[in-house]
Write a structure and sequence with these properties.
This protein is an all-beta fold. Helices cover 0% and strands 52% of the residues. The protein contains no helices and 8 strands. The mean pLDDT is 90.
Length: 86
């Protein structure tokens, strides 16, 4: 099992955070310096899962296939951090 971590600068266009790996990954921890939204490659501030500013959020992942997770903010920029074990 490997630990994956990173920090990504996110703006108003979808930015790739990470690609979830195969099982047994089941969740990721995501933290953002400003309100952000996560989802697929077409995520927007109205369609994404909200990540409140400075709040650690646990995001469930199936691990059934490799899927890229993207983030976006409504305005400005944010630093989005992630952590998962695969």
């Amino acid at each position: 099992m490997a630990i994956s971590t990173g920090q990504v600068s996110v703006g108003t266009t979808p930015t790739k955070l990470f690609t979830s790996g195969p099982a047994p990954i089941s969740r990721a921890l995501v933290y953002s310096s400003a309100a952000a939204f996560i989802g697929g490659s077409a995520v927007t501030s109205t369609t994404g899962l909200p990540i409140p500013a400075t709040t650690l959020v646990e995001v469930p992942l199936t691990g059934a296939e490799d899927d890229a997770v993207y983030a976006v903010v409504g305005s400005g920029t944010a630093t989005v951090s992630y952590f998962f074990v695969a």
